[in-house]
Amino acid sequence: MTTLDCDVVVVGAGPAGLLLAGELRLGGAAVVVLERRTEPGTESRASTLHARTMEILDSRGLLDALGELPNDVRGHFGGIPLDLTLPTPYPGQWKIPQTGTEAALREWALSLGAELRTGHEVTGVHTGPDGVTAQAVADGRTVGVRARYLVACDGEDSTVRRLTGAAFPGDAARRELVRADVAGIDIPARRFQRLPRGLAVAARNAQGVTRVMAHEFGSAAGERTGAPVFAEIRDLWQRLTGEDIGHGRPLWVNTFADAARQVAQYRDGRVLFAGDAAHQQMPIGGQALNLGLQDAANLGWKLALQVAGRAPDGLLDSYHTERHAVGSRALGNIRAQAMLLMGGPEVEPVRAVVAELVREEPVRAHLAAMICGLDIRYDTGPGDHPLLGHRLAHGQRGHGSRGLLLPHPGAPGPAETWRHALAPWSDRVDLVPGGGAGTAVPEPGAAVLVRPDGHVVWAGPEGGGQDDGAGLRTALRRWFGEPEAPDGPYALTDAPARTPARTESPAPAAGAPSPTPSQERDAGMSRFTGKTALVTGSSRGIGRAIALRLAREGALVAVHSSRGGEAADDVVTSIEKDGGRAFAVRAELGVPGDADALFLDLEQGLKERTGTTDLDILVNNAGIMGGGVAADATTPEQFDRLFAVNAKAPFFLIQRALGNLTDGGRVVNITSGLTHFANPEEIAYAMTKGAVEQLALHFAKYLAPRGITINSVAPGITRNDNPVFGIPEAVEQMAALSAFGRVGEPRDVADVVAFLASEDARWITGAFLDATGGTLLG
What we know:
Elements: E1 2-5, E2 8-11, H1 15-26, E3 31-35, E4 48-49, H2 51-59, H3 63-66, E5 71-72, E6 74-77, E7 80-83, E8 93-95, H4 98-111, E9 115-118, E10 121-127, E11 132-138, E12 141-147, E13 149-152, H5 159-164, E14 170-171, E15 176-183, E16 190-194, E17 198-204, E18 209-216, H6 230-241, E19 249-257, E20 260-262, E21 267-268, E22 271-273, E23 279-280, H7 287-307, H8 317-342, H9 348-358, H10 361-372, E24 403-407, H11 415-422, E25 429-431, E26 447-450, E27 456-460, H12 470-480, H13 517-524, E28 532-535, H14 541-552, E29 556-561, H15 567-577, E30 581-586, H16 594-610, E31 615-620, H17 636-657, E32 661-670, H18 683-703, E33 709-715, H19 728-735, H20 746-757, E34 768-771
Parallel strand pairs: 1-12, 2-3, 2-13, 3-9, 13-22, 24-25, 28-29, 28-31, 29-30, 31-32, 32-33, 33-34
Antiparallel strand pairs: 4-8, 5-8, 6-7, 10-11, 11-12, 14-20, 15-18, 15-19, 16-17, 17-18, 20-23, 21-22, 24-26, 26-27
Helix pairs in contact: 1-4, 1-7, 7-8, 14-20, 16-17, 17-18
């Protein structure tokens, strides 16, 4: 049996499963998605995105991928017209075939590094105290996927739910609508038209396809035998409307019924349920798809924190607490709508009363918010601020799995005060000074802490008053876990002692082969999962080794070369062949505009792959040697060129990166042992590297308030593509300079850089690290 290992296995590549996969990748989790289908579905079961879902997709930078969507503020409640206009950037219903939504989410999840395995039908789920294994059959062979957690997003007929025996209580279907997409017919549009014998709906899209839906009063679900066929809806439509649609070409025929069931526990140990696998309901008003996507947005960041060992106690359980209640309420309103929609003449008096009530603004707004998902309020902790628990349309695109602190433009204190308060959580929460564009923080002097799914978990200080920060720290701990370094430079007096997070290892499936030593080593090497890195001059030598090392540990690496050519592409190919992620960027350094040119290329590549332009790690490695020119023979042009590439470029690259570097980021500058070892033929070169060491020393204080470290690494004689390394006698002489009796290898330096780029080096900044192999010992 072929066995795969990951953090989370998602079963089902529908919209909910794909959004969840992307959310998990944003949080750094390794994800494998198993999908029974071999090709994407062609049926568009759902075609409506509601306001809350649009806000979520906007916050992930996904709306552009959906294109221009038709919008209609006219909705309905059980077939009774309802204006959906509400205070949101996206009021009303936004129309897109489910195939379009699914395609955009698939491309996004894959671009973030999720692994999609199509044609894999799950046949077994085995759970243990430390993990879960899904067994699937693909092309006649068995595949096992070992993970820490499994999430079932495999629809209302969930295989995972059946295999695990999950309780799925509720009501069986009593009534149903038959529907079809039909090409080649031209019939009057009908919007929930109640006719003497039943209900008829007809709507034609821009492609000339008409969706027809029909229900005959008094008919019950289950009377039909076998799968629906076009003749059934043709005859039903004829009976209800008197119109013949039999000459049309059916593209899709199905039924949906008013069954209402909900899984008893959204989380059962290491198995979780989302989307239609967690709840079965009639898709009235397009609520079903939106409910599932909102499940994924609620779960993704919590589960990512859990597998990273940073989740506070109870965070993952809050997924069930919050979403089960939301699902139960949605099923209730859908039941009520189904009665109004498919009931016969006996419901007309009730319909008349509801139609009258809907004309009252508080009732209209209440029902519209309920359908659009804008009225959800979670229990986020103590406090009576009106925003607590509610969603906030904050307008911050692409913030992903990170929380946000959004001060009102009039909030007391400079941005540095807020940044200082957040520094211990800077790996999980971002500060948006001034509230950010489009942010709806209504109270001058207030600030709000927002979860990755957009819900407010702290608000204050109220009324513009001052606050000792205890409330904010409590909220940060409750939703984002303990600070990474409570005893560090931003020590918190009330920070409790904690032990390092335990790294969970999934239990092997029965009979599955044990991991090889190399698999075990690689499984633990994920320090940079979810991180982005730029390594300048990484098409060869030390830079290449650094790029390969960071990518092997999970980073998305931008491989830079100063000129065009295949070398950078070869590095990218090597990284991708080993399962990593990388892309090439090109810009000549040492010329006017070099930093801007490089970052324009970098930002485009990051945006395409992560949805943001955030940079976590910058390695200034690119440089040129002096060519062994004696001091009395160095020309002004050679001198200026050395300083332009080796010293000026790193300074302005750091300056240009300030807006991209995330709080808690890392900058590593590659200098040289020649700054401490005399060589009269490389005076100018050594001067440039001495300048770079000053960069680290002085930038360290400038960057420290954001938790960013900057350090210098000085290689000694290191093997590269210089022909001299092919001469044994020369290599022997060079090796004698090292205390270890050998020349350095590029990976020797890469390992030091990887340490400085990691969280383990958070307490080192402004330092000079001797990576010469003892050459400077004398």
